[in-house]
Amino acid sequence: MTQPLSHSTNTDTSSTTTVVVPGEHVMAALVGPRDQFLRRVEQRFPAVQIRVRGNEIRVAGDETVQVTAVARLFEEIVTLIQNGQQLDDNTLDRVFTMIEANERPSEVLTHQVLRSAKGRQVKPKTAGQKRYVDAISNNVITFGIGPAGTGKSWLAVAMAVRALQAKQVERIILTRPAVEAGERLGFLPGDLMAKIDPYLRPLYDALYDMIDVEGVQRLLEKQVVEVAPLAFMRGRTLNNSFIILDEAQNTSPEQMKMFLTRIGFGSRVVITGDTTQVDVPNGKSGLASLEQTLTGIDGLAFVKLGGADVVRHKIVADIVAAYERRELEREQQRSDLSDA
After folding, report:
1. Distance in angstroms (rounded) separating the CA atoms of residues 218 and 231
2. DSSP alpha helices (H): ranges in 147-296?
C-alpha cells in the first residue's frame, strides 16, 4: 500500500505543505463528487488555502498548526480510502473531530470488531468507542458510561459475540434491571419471559444485528445465550461467560454489589449506563460514585463517552451536548455557592 507523502516549507509569515496522493482513484474518492468533500474541508478550516493539481494537494496558510492539521487530515483520509473505508459526510465529520482532538482516524475507523451475519463490518466510529472496545479486550470488568446513541450496548454485544465465536467464553449472559418490577409486571399478559421481554428487547435487537434470527434462536434454545432480568443473577456464580449488564444506572447500590460479586473464573463483564437518565426510586443509583469506590482495582476500567461519540442523527449529538453544557453550568453554580 502506497503511503501519502508530504513535505513542508515555512517562512516568517506563512507555512505550506504538499500532500502527494497515490493514484487517481484515491484522489477522486478524497475530493468527492463535484469536489464536495474538498469544499467541506475548506469550510471547516477557513484559515488555510487548499489547491489541487494532479496528484498533489497544496495546503498553505499563516497558521502553521492549522496547515499541519489539514495536511494530516488528508493523509489520514488517504489511508482510510486505501483500507476500503467509504467516505461520506458523517465519516468526514468524525474525521474532523478526531483530527481536532489530535487523534488518528485511520487507527479508529479501520479497527474491525466483528463481521455480522449479514456481512456488515462492526467497527468503532469514534475515538471514544475505540477506547471502549480496547478496554473491554484488556480488562475483566469494563464500565461504559455515556448518553444514548454512543454505542455502549451495541459494541458490548459485538464484543460478546466475538468472544463466543473465538471460544474465549462458553456463553453470553445479557441482563438489565427491570425498574418497573413488582406488581406492574403482573399486569402484563403472558408467562414470565413474556412479561420481562419488553425490558430486554434492546439487547435482543443488538444480537439480531450480529447474528441471524435463526442463529439467535438456536443459541437461546441451547442456553448458550441467556437473557434475564438482573434479579435472576442473585445466588449464582458466572464462570466462563461474557456478561453484559445494561442500563446499570437503574440498579440500586445493593443490586450493583450483588452483581459484581457474581463474577466467576474465565468471565468478562461489561456494565453500561447513562447517569443522566436514572429511573430508580429516590434517584439512588448503584452506578453513581462507583468509580471512586472501585478506583485502583487491577483489571477494571471506566470509559466515559460523550456527545462526540454519539453516532445517531446529528440532532441527538446536539441535544446531548446541550445537556452536558447545562450540567457544567449547574456544577459551576454549585461551586460558586459553596465558595461564597
Report:
1. 24
2. 152-165, 183-186, 192-210, 213-221, 253-260, 290-294
48-53 and 56-61 beta bridge pairing? antiparallel
* Strands annotated E in the chain: 5-10, 15-20, 48-53, 56-61, 114-115, 121-122, 141-145, 171-176, 225-229, 241-245, 268-273, 300-304
Q: Which of 104, 168, 110, 105 shows the shortest CA–CA distance to 136? A: 168
> Among residues of the chain, what percentage have pLDDT more than 90?
57
pTM for the whole structure: 0.81
Question: Mind listing the pLDDT tens digit for each residue in 206-225?
Answer: 898 899 889 999 999 999 99
Rg (CA), the chain: 24
**Which residues does 256 contact at the CB level (< 8 Å), separation at least 6?**
248, 286, 287, 290
Instruction: Return d(Cα 87, Cα 37) in angstroms, integer.
Output: 9
> Residue 20's closest CA among 34, 35, 8?
8
CB 58 within 8 Å of CB 50? yes
265-287 average pLDDT score:
89
For 97-134, b/e burial (b = at least 16 CB within 10 A) is ebbeeebebbebbbeebbebbeeeebbbbbbbbbbbbe
Q: Please, which residues have CB within 8 angstroms of residue 158's CB and are 6 or more apart in sequence?
A: 113, 114, 122, 206, 210
Tell me the backbone φ, ψ of residue 227, rounded to 5 degrees. Answer: -120, 120
Q: 33-84: per-residue pLDDT in tens?
A: 999 999 999 999 999 999 999 999 999 999 889 999 999 999 999 999 998 8
Q: Which of 306, 81, 102 is nearest to 92 (CA)?
A: 81
The crossing angle, in degrees rounded to 10, of helices 24-31 and 64-82 is 120
Q: If you write DSSP's letter for every residue of 220-262 in order, what string do you get?
A: HHTTSEEEEEGGGGTT--B-SEEEEE-SGGGS-HHHHHHHHTT
Render pLDDT for 118-148 as a digit per residue (tens, 0 to 9). Answer: 778 889 999 999 999 999 999 999 999 998 8
Query: What average pLDDT score do residues 304-329 get?
Result: 78
pLDDT of residue 190: 59
* Three-point CA angle 118, 121, 124, nearest 5°: 140
pLDDT at 181: 40
